[in-house]
Amino acid sequence: MAAFKLLATLSLPYFVYGQGGVPAPSYLYPSCVHTGCGTSSCPSGLTLHIRTFEDTSGNFCGNRDSLVCCPFPTRSGSWVPTTPTDGHHTCPTSNPCPAQNQVLIYADPRGAGGNICLDPTPSSSYWYCEDQPVPNPVKSTGKYTYQGCYSDSSSARTLTGGSFTDYDKMTVEMCASKAAAAGATYFGVEYYGECYWGNSINSGSTQQDANLCTSWCAGNQQEACGGLTGQMGLYVNPSNVVPKEVGSYKTWVTQGCYSDSESARSLPNTYTAPSGTSMTVEVCCDAAAGFKYAAVEYGKECYYGNYLQPTASKQDSGCNMQCAGSPSELCGGGNRINLYLNNAYSQPASEKPSVGSFSSLGCYTDNGSARGLTAGSSKSSSMTVEKCVQLAAGYKYAAMEYSTECYWGNTLSSTSTQASGQCTMACGGDSSELCGDGNRMNVYLNKDYSDPSTTPPAVGSFTYLGCFVDDPASRVLPNQNQDTSMTVERCISLATAGNAKYAGLENGNQCFFGTNLTASGSDGCTKACAGNSAETCGGARRLAIYENKSYVDPGHSTTSKTTTVSSTSITSPTTVPSMSITSSTTVPPTPTVVPSIGSFSNTGCFFDQENPRVLVADSMSGDDMTVEKCTQFADDGAWQFAGVEFGIQCFVGNTLHGASASNPSDCNQACSGNPAEACGAGNRIGVYQDSDWVDPTADQLADVLQEYNSTLAQVLDAINDYKSHIQQLKDLRNQKKRSLNGRLAARQSQTETILLQEITNDANQLQVVRDLLDRAASNGNRLFLIGASEDIERPTSPLVTSDSLSQLREATQEASEVLSQVSDAATSDAESIASAESSGSGSPLLDLDGDLSAAGSAVSTIGKAGAATGAAVATGIFLTIATLFGIFHHGGGSTGPGITTIITPPESTTAVTTSSATSTTTTTCSPTQTPTPVVVLTTHDSTRDEYDALVNELKINDTTINQQMIFDSINFRALVAELDDCDVENLQGNKIVSTLSVNIDGEAETFANSPMDKRDSMLINVVGKRAIPGPSSKDLERNMTMFEKRYIPDPYRNLWVAGSLDNDAQRGYPYPFHLDWLTATWAQRGLTGSYLGFEHYLFEKGDTLPGVRVYVIDTGAKLDHDDLAGRIATSYDATQNPPVQGVTDTDGHGTCMSSCVGGAFAGSFKQASIVPIKFMVNGGIAPTLADALRAIATALNDKAQSGVQAGVLSMSFGFQVADLRVAAGQPENTVDPFADLLQRIEQANIVAVASGGNYKEHDLFDRTPRKNGGADTAMIVVGAADHTSNRWAESTYIDSSGKNILSIYAIGQYVMCAGIGYTNGYARNTGSSPATAQVAGIVAMYLAKGLTTVPNAKAYLLQEARRLKGGNWPNDGEGAPAGEGPPRAGVDWQIPCQEENPPQATQPPYERPEDVYYADEYSVSITTYDDSKLGCVKPIP
Hints:
Blueprint: E1 33-37, E2 47-52, E3 66-70, E4 77-82, E5 88-90, E6 102-107, E7 111-112, E8 116-118, E9 125-131, E10 140-141, E11 144-151, E12 162-165, H1 172-181, E13 186-190, E14 194-198, E15 216-217, E16 220-224, E17 231-236, E18 248-249, E19 252-259, E20 269-271, H2 281-287, E21 293-297, E22 301-305, E23 314-315, E24 322-323, E25 326-330, E26 336-342, E27 354-355, E28 358-365, E29 376-379, H3 385-391, E30 397-401, E31 405-409, E32 426-427, E33 430-434, E34 440-446, E35 462-469, E36 479-482, H4 488-497, E37 502-506, E38 510-514, E39 518-519, E40 528-529, E41 532-536, E42 542-548, E43 564-565, E44 569-570, E45 579-580, E46 596-597, E47 600-607, E48 618-622, H5 627-636, E49 641-645, E50 649-653, E51 670-671, E52 674-678, E53 684-690, H6 698-738, H7 742-788, H8 802-839, H9 848-862, H10 876-888, E54 910-914, E55 919-923, E56 932-938, H11 944-956, E57 961-967, E58 972-979, H12 981-988, E59 993-998, E60 1039-1046, E61 1055-1060, H13 1073-1079, E62 1091-1092, E63 1097-1100, E64 1108-1114, E65 1132-1133, E66 1140-1141, H14 1149-1158, ...
Parallel strand pairs: 39-43, 60-76, 64-67, 64-68, 65-67, 68-70, 70-72, 72-73
Antiparallel strand pairs: 1-3, 2-3, 4-9, 5-8, 6-9, 7-8, 10-11, 11-17, 12-14, 13-14, 13-17, 15-16, 18-19, 19-23, 19-26, 20-22, 21-22, 21-26, 24-25, 27-28, 28-34, 29-31, 29-48, 30-31, 30-34, 32-33, 35-42, 36-38, 37-38, 37-42, 40-41, 44-45, 46-47, 47-53, 48-50, 49-50, 49-53, 51-52, 54-55, 56-58, ...
């Protein structure tokens, strides 16, 4: 027989069969038929697959055809000729088919010995090739899902639990059946017909390219059964696998579970696995190779990057989803990522985009013999971009080169050209920054620089003198004024008023003035005036000074005072003119040695040489060198000595190395920046020594830390004052939005004016403490820098370690940065306030949220000061300062207020605090989160004294308490305080604290467009948000007449039927349909037999029944609405603290809910006694958690005070549980306050009824209070049904808890209820809110009529629902609990009757109505009459 075999991959050599007439194996072509010689067509149902020249025994057929027919569809193919050699040719050892998607299926002629092919014709022989479709893996079968393509080996099987083979009929389903019967977690298929299974995967098996597992199954060519060269298609039963976090993989280590958000991803890059590759931790980490972070999310997503967004926070829960490619691994969850850190990652040096006013221009060429920048240079092993631009302050350009070099100037040489990508060396002082390369420099442009081409004009008798150095610790001019609208004219006016000779402007908004001037000339006066950007008002620590030429000394009217200026040649890069306070002679002055500059005094002239230098610590050079510039350079670096040499060079250090005195006259070369000054000479250095310089002792280091600590405490007070005023202003403005009371609004406006003035004062105070902190930081860092210097001859090593120096630098820098952010925000606020006042434009527009964020971040970063008594331990920057203080404070005794001696390093969990009186060991906690408003709920059995003690403790610790909620009569107490994670940790141990929850906003969204819009679970679902028209609106033309007809024959009950006289054909059904559905005979699908044919709502009519109150927590209610007349027992506004009686409703949602509970037209229980409780203004302003707790406490308090027997609580809101958690590791039972409150509600004999939510993608278990429902709880959770009795498409139903949280459905689609436009206006509402209110009414009716009790109310409700509507409702789909779905609400007012073969009740037609908006209210009138003509009908099954 001719040889044939289907080959699935090109790498597998073809097979030759038929030697000696042996037929080919049957598994090659299952169910094929070989017809024999002389056949021209295939049998019916089979398709021609091969034409051969042999019969079934392998005998040659001559010119007659022999066919192989198979049950395969016809596929395209081609005959491909091969070239014969002397009538024979050698069979190929690889596939000869021309296209890569084709496979060899037939070799002709038969091979002799398996490698020689006989040519049946003289001219040629053929290969037959056909297109081979690539089968896809079966995605799932039964409980198993496809995990991917994995390696396998006969010597080390991937799965070892069992196996079987069937090369004729193997399918994926067949193998799955075998694995399921064995109870196996995994199974795999490969090589056409092999099946393996087991409960674990061999650790040596790895995921392979998906294309290697595309060999078809022997029993179904459309399915893939792994590969042919050691690849297995692997399947898993996820329900058998408990996923675990992968601890590490290669160089990656887990960091735990973190939050994520679609709108703000925690990592910037997304990796999408190629088709056929399922996600695993390993796949994601391999894709993120070279990056710092990798993260897996939602089972199948992968993200990576080098920067983790600050919005990502560590979570205790939520990472619970199996990886799609490995169910044994955790791959995050919904908005949760499993985060991994790459330990092999190293931060590459990168170009810093900008530093201060300097912005990068990129990489440029340089030349050692012709520098690109020539004004000055410096070389330091600790060079950074920041250090270089500081040296270049006042110049146009700064450049870093060869890692340690810095150059600056105002002109970039034309010989320097751009050299993109050629600057690759890291800075000597910061390996993350680029600092040029060999003859390559990173160039930065000073955007504040402008050409010093003009001299500022005189202002009156004041003329510009120049730019001078100023020091906050020792001001050049004593009198100061700060103004956000500062100008040159304003400052001179202040100086004139103060009879001052000099006026100086600094930093754009400061003015100084005085009579005496002793200062060093400088540059850097480049900052525009705050009040006139066309003028220059000095710079940072640079004074632009004007002199009053008409000044007369009051005590010496004929003699002018002397001005002492240390530099006689001063140039400003922007507006300072070239000036010279020298003789007018044209003969160059003879340079003289400057005897002293500030605290630096000349100590003589010394020999120097290139190696070794006299001063070795640092150096700089430039064509503008002066003694002032060099000594300033030394002072900035806290060096003891400064030396000038060769006219252009400056060297600094703390020790004169091998210094040998030279003749003082040898140092006679003029300074390049001031020819009147001597700057050493060739190999001669003029040395200056700082008389203020000291090598500090430990006590001196401790003293500067104490000074800084005290200043930092002042800073914290100033920030907290500002934060408090901003928070008060925000709260006030929110209240003003809600206020409709004119007198209250006026008082609020007065309060706002006071707060705005306080904020302006805060801005000024923040600027003052900012200067104080800068001074304290400068003093501290200077002494620490000296203490760490190795350029000092000491008997021991430096007192300050490099770690201590870095800690102080980082702490002071961080404090300065956060204070600057707050100070800048406050200054911006003050400017906006001043602008609004001057323009009369009303309330200034302030970024209050941004201000609070900046202040909160600063408070968290600075932390809390420790107490010497050990009562509190320092956190944040205070902790760093306290730790350093503990190292250097050896004198014993009291450490002073606000600082703690901590012996252990900052990361330690134990700190030893000491004072003169006590020694206490306490546990430290460094907060990782900004203080956040947290709701603290105390336990139900705590006392008022215990609560007051808790409040006092918080106040002692300077904790901000925003509000307190106290209902002593029911033992309910809660407060809202600004807490960080350390505060929470401390409070968790307090016996009277029940729960601690972030005071988040509820999800308050309205259906602003169409009723079919998806909205979240706050369920504020009034259709539309347009303004309510007046009584003249055309909406009054929309009207409906409702009938109420009494059913006379029943003598025992006052039964009435409510319905609509208008069939409302435009909308397809009569109203009120949601009530019809509860009692109409046609809607009772669970009943059998005959009943009076009530088509509409059946109810009892009469006064409200005492003993039960329904508390509707919502947006209030329109109390004068016709539908609520006589039904409101009382009402409370819980948006006020404490709550007050009386409510309004500007939103409409609350009015609708009260209407659905007990309205005359829309209510399910028309004898209800309703108590509306307002806890939010409208759906656009979300209620906070505290608002919800206050509202529930109000209901509990009313229940206790009113003396009613029972109550029902209707709640249509939700809070996301994950967002309530204050800190990672917080115990689960302390997070959700509703778990506690629901117990109190039940104990108060109240039934809690909560909405299920309006987002089909949400999980019922993710939001509270509904998450506390379930089959074993008393709370009723309600979903929304549509008019076909099925779940409304958007109603939430997914329940990951498995507790059967959702209890029941009621109609929630297009429910007509009371509106707020008119006293008789009604509008449509869609969602689970109206369904919830209806169920609350039904429960209240059962309680009021004595049909059930509070503990049994839920069971009775569900029992009646199943009896009336049936119990065979299917579950709601994937994600719903298994088994029967929740029942549909029904009310038993049915009246049996006797009639043979009664007709079936007629259900009203239903069509989806047009979208009806909030403004389109119906007016409803009600007519009543008696009617007893009803026939017998059967309910619709």
